[in-house]
Amino acid sequence: MDDEFESLRASAQEALRVRDLSAVGELLAAHDPPEIVRLLEQEPHAADRAVMYRLLDRESAMEVFELLDTGMRAELIEGLRDEDVALIFEQIDPDDRAQLVDELPAGVAKRLMQGLSPAEREVTLSLLGYPRRSIGRYMSPEFVRLRPRLTVGDALTHIRHRGADAETIYLLPVTDDARRVEGVVGLRELVMARADETVAGLMVEARTVRVTDDAESAARRIVEAQLLAAPVVDGEDRIVGIVTIDDASRILEEADDEDAARQGAAEPLRRPYLTTPVLGIVRSRVVWLLVLAVSALLTVQVLGVFEATLEEVVTLALFIPLLTGTAGNTGAQAATTVTRALALGEVRARDVLAVAWREVRVGFVLGALLGLLGFALASLVFDVAFGAVIGLTLVAVCTLAATVGGAMPMLARAVRADPAVFSTPFISTFCDATSLIIYFVIATRILGL
Fold this sequence. Notes:
- Homodimer.
- The protein is mainly alpha-helical and 449 residues long.
- It has helices at residues 2-17, 21-29, 33-41, 46-54, 58-67, 70-79, 82-91, 94-103, 106-115, 118-128, 152-162, 187-192, 215-224, 245-263, 278-305, 307-312, 320-343, 352-381, 384-414, 424-447, and strands at residues 171-175, 181-186, 209-210, 229-233, 239-244.
- The chain has 20 helices and five strands.
- Strands 3-4-5 form a three-stranded mixed beta sheet.
- Helix 6 crosses helix 8 (94-103), helix 17 (320-343) packs parallel to helix 19 and helix 17 packs across helix 20 (424-447).
- The protein starts with a helix and ends with a helix.
């Protein structure tokens, strides 16, 4: 399969190089949308991506556009002709349109919004009115709702009449006349029931999400409950939209990508690596590198304070990488574990003391195990006093690093910050400085420096 794709990619690039557009069009027409998306994602030149996209027929173009990442959609929009853009923008789903607006320059977004039909503009503006990180930005306002008193026969007729434009018909919300959700019913249950049965006799309790709920938290609840879809309600329990499990899975995938990037001291790229400009990659990394470089000056300051101690016992310098590395790794492990527990809803911000106490014990046990090993090895190579310095330092730094690593994501959530930001990079830097202070204080006391 990879060999076939590489052959397709090489053929497309050669045809583009010589500007044989008919050959490019024939190549694209012979492949499915997922393969075309992969081809676009690995084409490094934005202009050539736009050329390939314009060579697709209308149906394939819409399928490909829906499969692209939001960042690539935004870039593609800027590279197409105005008439192509207007057509795409009108035809995509309102929730995809709202997310695309967030990625586009303000001027481009305004022009596209003005070009929409009145109905589509009103629907899109309603989604854009919700907080940026809320599930309201990701829901679809296009759904079929049923009334409890409908018979199954009438309900199926209603679905056939209204279902063509709906996000999904496999799980249908049941509401009263005021649009308040009373339950949900599956299409399978309707198809299998007698025509004279009522929807009220088939519906089950609905598991709804609030329109202002955090998108990641709401999506995780939907995926964990394995719901085909969940009604989205306002403060008065009136339905305003629906979120499918596909949309929820996409939200979680984007959130996981963001967390992974920030744990590595970078911002997510928002588009495939090969299609991201070099300056875009630089921007995603440089801010965090500057922050970490400045914070690392703490370590330099600590070494400066204890410079006389190092000159007196040069051997102390040999163990600095071991101690700072162990502290950073211990803190990073704790932070990663707690950040994941937060994302899964296993702990909440108010559990910070319970988490800190648990990590104190975990860190102490880990430090004791490593400390015993360090004490034995340092005592054999140097002497017992020096071995005691290494052993006690390992116990202390592991305990502190685990506690701080576990507590920092909890504190981040409490102040509505991203827990991933407070994990590996900051904790590693913090542990470097504090572990050195602990190390030199213990060495001063035991070795009488």
